[in-house]
Fold:
Amino acid sequence: MAMNYNAKDEVDGGPPCAPGGAAKTRRPDNTAFKQQRLPAWQPILTAGTVLPTFFIIGLIFIPIGIGIFVTSNNIREIEIDYTGTEPSSPCNKCLSPNVTSCFCTINFTLEESFEGNVFMYYGLSNFYQNHRRYVKSRDDSQLNGDPSALLNPSKECEPYRRSEDKPIAPCGAIANSMFNDTLELFLVTNESDLTLTPITLKKKGIAWWTDKNVKFRNPPGAGSLEEKFKDTTKPVNWHQPVYKLDTDEDNNGFINEDFIVWMRTAALPTFRKLYRLIERRSDLHPTLPAGQYYLNITYNYPVHSFDGRKRMILSTISWMGGKNPFLGIAYITIGSISFLLGVVLLVINHKYRNSSNTADITI
Amino acid sequence: MEQELAVAEEPASPRRRRPRRRRWEGRTRTVRSNLQPSLGAEDPAAGASKGERLLTRGCVQHLADNRLKTTKYTLLSFLPKNLFEQFHRLANVYFVFIALLNFVPAVNAFQPGLALAPVLFILAVTAIKDLWEDYSRHRSDHEINHLGCLVFSREEKKYVNRYWKEIRVGDFVHLRCNEIIPADILLLSSSDPDGLCHIETANLDGETNLKQRQVVRGFSELVSEFNPLTFTSVIECEKPNNDLSRFRGCIIHSNGERAGLHKENLLLRGCTIRNTEAVAGIVIYAGHETKALLNNSGPRYKRSQLERQMNCDVLWCVLLLVFMSLFSAVGHGLWVWRYQEKKALFDVPESDGSSLSPATAAVYSFLTMIIVLQVLIPVSLYVSIEIVKLCQVYFINQDIELYDEETDSQLQCRALNITEDLGQIQYIFSDKTGTLTENKMVFRRCTVSGIEYSHDANAQRLARYQEVDSEEEEVISRVGTVSQRGSIGSHQSIWITHRNQSIKTHRRTSSRAEAKRASMLSKHTAFSSPMEKDITPDPKLLEKVSECDRFLAIASHQEHPLAHLSPELSDVFDFFIALTICNTVVVTSPDQPRQKVRVRLELKSPVKTIEDFLRRFTPSRQASGYSNTGNLATNKSSHKSGSSVLSSLSQDSMLLKLEERLGQAASTLAPNGYSSQAGQAEGWAPEGTGEQKHLGEQKQGLKPDLELRYEAESPDEAALVYAARAYSCTLVHRLQNQVSVELPHLGRLTFELLHTLGFDSIRKRMSVVIRHPLTDEINVYTKGADSVVMDLLLPCSSDDTRGRHQKKIRSRTQHYLNLYAVEGLRTLCIAKRVLSKEEYACWLQGHIEAESSVNNREELLFQSAIRLETNLHLLGATGIEDRLQDGVPETIAKLRQAGLQIWVLTGDKQETAINIAYACKLLDHGEEVITLNAESQEACAALLDQCLHYVRSKGSQSSPENTESDVSMGFSFNPASTSPASGPSPSLVIDGRSLAYALEKSLEDKFLFLAKQCRSVLCCRSTPLQKSMVVKLVRSKLKAMTLAIGDGANDVSMIQVADVGVGISGQEGMQAVMASDFAVPRFRYLERLLIVHGHWCYSRLANMVLYFFYKNTMFVGLLFWFQFYCGFSASAMIDQWYLIFFNLLFSSLPQLVTGVLDKDVPANMLLKEPQLYKSGQNMEEYRPRAFWLNMVDAAFQSLVCFFIPYLAYYDSDVDVFTWGTPVTAIALLTFLLHLGIETKTWTWLNWLACGFSTFLFFSVALIYNTSCATCYPPSNPYWTMQTLLGDPLFYLTCLIAPVSALLPRLFFKALLGSLFPTQLQMGRRLAKKFPSKYTTPKETSTQAQPPGDPETAFSGRRTMGPSESLPKDRATQVSPLPQQLACSPEASGEPSALDTNMPLKDDTLLEGLGTQVPGSSVPREAVSEECPGHSNGKPTSESPAAPLSSLFNLPSFSSLNWISSLSLASGLGSVLQLSRGSLQMDKQDSPPQPDQDLHSLQRQVTDYF
Structure:
């Protein structure tokens, strides 16, 4: 864009020369500000001035887009839907409402090995965690271990506030609807005899550090967790009370990371949540070598009723997070469009200039 | 207790606090002295001290004391009262409703307390503003209340110092010179022996001349000093009212005698005592009941057009909001219905466990959506607009180019909220006198007794002044400012700030203009600059005057001195006497500032009672012959002896005594002559013999001229007095009942002033009744508008020679009057009437009755004046020039180029008005002028039809374009709308009577249609009411934006009716300014005010409002799209804090800065190319299309800004608010970038504001996200921002989303800018390409700019193609129609319908023209009238004019004949030819049209890049 600072204005904008010193006239000060003569950049939007912008945008965006696209493509990701709506699915049996504690196993093959840390997600679709009343239905003070809130949860938790005359801990609809399937991953090391090597799934380190250490706390006081929660009752849908989420003291009660992750309500109805970490063992071996895997599922979580889907996702990550083909494509597209528009403007500018040149001659 | 009432008010209402509320018309107030003890019974409290008395008399409290309390609130009442007032705003109620809705748990969207925040914020801002204003009011009240003044104390029996606020009605107040009057006071005593007192009312009405007030009759005669203790009278007067010019009442003395009171007896609060050492009076109205305060209305509130349009769009937003909410509600209902069955895990039942029915859920969702989407209704829009307008007002006030050095005043905005209306004006209605002209009256020429005195030397002198003026301006301004500072500073220190701020800022403007010039010579005077004072007399007339004077000096001791004079000389003499005394000029001497020349003269008060009259006049009737000799005898004796018994007696005796004595002496001496004799005796006393006298005269002849200053109420009066002085007929002093005139030979003549019938706009004349000292006759001198006076003349029979002579004189005078009018002079007729004693007695009786009547006194006085002013004898007429103000023609040309239609509405004569119109280029000599003079309704209708027909046919004959067509966004300026070059539209001149007909319901449409076609319209002889009717008509029927500008009281109604009222803070007082929205010192400032500031304000505000709508819609769009992904549950992904404070804090500053500072086109470019103003008139910036395009763009942008993050985060583990925060950030960045595209000038403030906005958002977010781990449910954004800042994805989305959202806008803007640039854009490019040309400050004559040299800088540049030839002055438009069209009755050829009673006038007029044309050196005064015939006779070469004869059906030839039968038709023809020749020259060197310039420029500009 064309820019010119009006040097003249700056000169003019000097302080006024008041001859009389304390002269009292109503003459306004002759300052650049008061006289609205501040030096200014005055861009004028025409094809000629704007087209560099378009080219610059194009030139910047396309490389970025390519970079993102490549990065995103390097990310290995596999997604297994285990909702079991298809009759052929091994989990189809679990859909029937009268089956309790249903187990099913899905086998899948990794075509390529997964290097580096691998993240294991569970994904839900058509699950409206962002529903207004759902989002509200929690008590952060209780989750922070506030003893009074523990026994007297916030009204926002209604109708999951009290049960059997005891306060629910953790209260609210979010907690009540916590995802409770258990996923286990086995590598088929020997296909002939189906030797299964369990993959170590790390439970900790999946939640935000601040959530685990600041936002979520177990109630204070001495004694075991069970004692701390003794005056409370479990959420209606839960099979186990909160202090039995895990055996590890550091990952139990409110600071259970699965719980913490669940409590961070997803933005969109299709979402995934980090379930486990599969840490890289060494540089030599891929974290998840290519091959056949079994996914053992303890199928508890009913999503079929509202047309939801459940998935298990394994993914490696890059500097920009998980696999995301969109952003790369978007950058490339916008960059190209911008470049194209730039060309259009260039043509217009060129053509227009030609015509005016000839016109000039005639004058 | 009853008697204890020092002051009682009959209809008193005990609970009255605010005086204005009362409505007891016709009732009166009674005021008694506070000092009087009870009338009958002794009251124990009577003797108590004043303070105690105040305590005890509880029931008196209802009378307002003098405490000024303009504050609205007290400490306690502030909150409730202020809130109550704020809730009168619908928007506030709405927002509070929304906030309260949020407290309902089922529908709440935010934390309830938080939702209140924006409303509270806005309420608080307003409240703080109100509080501050109220506090400053309180402070100034306090200051005023604690001023001191002397009040008579009953206990101490003397005047003691008290605060103003302690003054009560009925108190006696003592005031000294230069003190400000604390309350409305009835003048009871004055140190002036005549019982006079002068006050300056500048604080009240801005007039700086002194006004005379007189002591109540009955008190002026008091011998000893006025003693309040003896005051036992009761005063009955009107209820407090706001009429400054009226006061009625009577005083009832203890003996039952009644005397009338009128405004001459009342000293108004806020005025200053001048010229009088001390006065005393009784307080009549105090505090808020004083007229000054009752007159003081608050600032005006108007709603601008843009705001009205905006409100309409706000309604659209409301509709949109309702639609979105409804959509959402339905969606939610369906969603609930769908998922409830299925026992979805995320479905939250009601608190009692039951599930919500879809319908209920939908209703809840609807309400919640309204809360969530409330942002769509811009809560901060109104506040922002107020702020922006305030800043705009500030900048307008600060503009140095609108500062008038002469008057030391800058432009004032009195209405704060219609700045942008200035940019949309389509019609300007202007007053003429004082607005277009200086209202500085300069005597130019006169005619006496039918003989014209052209005063050529005087004209040359004036021409010289004009030249010198411009050159000396610089020097004078510097010298002047230094020297005037002293005096003005001291005045200002006296000034006390009343509530009326405007008065304060204006008070000295009128005098300062003069002060500057006058300070060169001596101390300042009220009106008259040297130019007006130094009149070069016409030698012929001077000769006659001195002859007359000499003759009279010799003949003065004869019986009938005047009778021996030839009638002509006698007329000359009377003429000058009339000029000198028929006025209300106050003579002051500059040695003692504002001290009148003190010549102690003993005279009785004017004739006030019948007995008085009888006493004074009856004896003279009995012995009239004798008395004359007696009179002369005494005259002679006084001449000789130097002092007479009488005069010596009277010098040290009091008036009453003198009267008694005279009464006794009446039978022996000549009592009827004593006044003149006494006067002369006084005047002559020191001189003694003739030789001595002559010497004294010579001394005096030089001295008084220098010393005397005249302060007149109107500049005309002063001009006439100065004119008379130039002829050695000097007004020496004036007291209430006598006037002294100094003549070189005759010496000092003292006229007994019997009555002064002041000027009023209905009578249009003023008269004085005097007794002539030489002839002892009672004479009436009348001075007035010629139209009135000519009708009042004594009908003269054509039989005798005298009568014929008279008739001839009259017709000649009329002829000269017309001539003067053609020259643009203001004309006044001077006439005289000699009253016989009987006539006078007869009239006096009625007059005294009228004067003393309380009810409809004005009406009776009016009737009385009419009775007096008949059968006049014409003496002569004067022509006074009212010079055009600086730069008026240029300004008018510029304004017209800017597409403004200018109408001049004036009360002046048609000829004068037309002439001024030519002078200020309102009319062009080349263009047609349609003159509408109709004598009846039918005639007017017929004329209108004809004119319409003519205009239409002309329009169709030339190109089909319409002047009203839109300016298309084409490559070039649309010639149809920019200049009338292709088909000049005629101008319309209409007189008052025709206007009255044309404004009738049946004709107004036609009139308006005709006027619309006309280039300019001139309404002459229009009344104030007509002025306002015209404005109203245009405003309502044409739906046009109107601006009225005027300076006088007669423009007030028009100023009030117009959309924008502009007052000129000139010399006719403050009334126009008080009624106006903007006050400018000069007409020429209108150009910059409209073309620069108006345009800027409009464009800024329009863009800001559009941006506001865009911003809110875009923001709400984000939330709305989200509803599709959250089951329409009215959930928001944007944190409630961001949602609520986004508009208020994060995104508000940049738009404010842009709204205040953005300049789409630099000022100088706007001034050079006034056409650019049309964008505002056509509402190009903010029209419905722009609004909806904007909304569509907002929708698009919100889609982009929503879906890019959506897709980027699709199926990820992001939570609601971690995803919402980038969306917010994206929105903010998009807003800023969008604003960046819209901003035309980037100053450091813009950069700062944008940077600050971004910084503020991120820092607030960071702090907010760190502050509390468990607060702010439900979002609980702990550490969100921090996490995001570590996420590359965040930056990537924040980069791509705003860019892709704005790409289309930028592209289309660039495309439009290249392919279809608007005029504004071309203007900007032009300004940018040649910065040196357009950024150099405009040289105005008054500005002391650094001597930049734009010319040389400019000429030194490389060639710049055609645009270089941009004309410097495009004021002269080409208009190829040379002939003028007159539709006067004669020309129109409709004699049947019209009265043809004009011949005499027109005859003489034409005659005048004929004589003028050959002799006149200025052919430009082209004579405009009645020439339809000439257009036939002469070939109209280039004009596409319709053949006029076809339009004016054949009878017009009769009028042609009529004209050509006059001998001067040929003269007319030659003038026409001349003007056409000059016109053709005009055409040849007419500059290239602006559109061509810009057109070519536009090509160059594209070259450039």
About this structure: Chain A touches chain B through 115 residues (CB under 8 Å). Chain A has a mean pLDDT of 84. The first strand of chain A starts at residue 77 and ends at 81. Residues 99 and 205 of chain A are 33 Å apart (CA to CA).
